[in-house]
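Running low. Got one?
___
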Amino acid sequence: MMDPFPIPLVIIGGKYDEFQDFDSEKRKIICKTLRFVAHSHGAHLQVRNDMYIFLLKLTSLLTFLLQHLGHLISLLLKFIKSYTRILLS
């Protein structure tokens, strides 16, 4: 019954926040159907909502800023620790 897809396959369900408002029986049927399709093709099933995407973008932005702040601080500390040279060498 399982027929794996030739390349890795990911099924992504969006708008989970709207899905939560569905009737419980309707959600159950949708979930079982998606799981069956994912399993029969050897795929991964992921569900996301819009707030998750916002948090993911915010996290990547903060990581980017902190990395650059770390480089800047390490450069400043290198200049400060060198007492024998001028500051802007």
About this structure: The two ends are 70 Å apart (CA to CA). The mean pLDDT is 77. The beta strands are 10-13, 44-47.
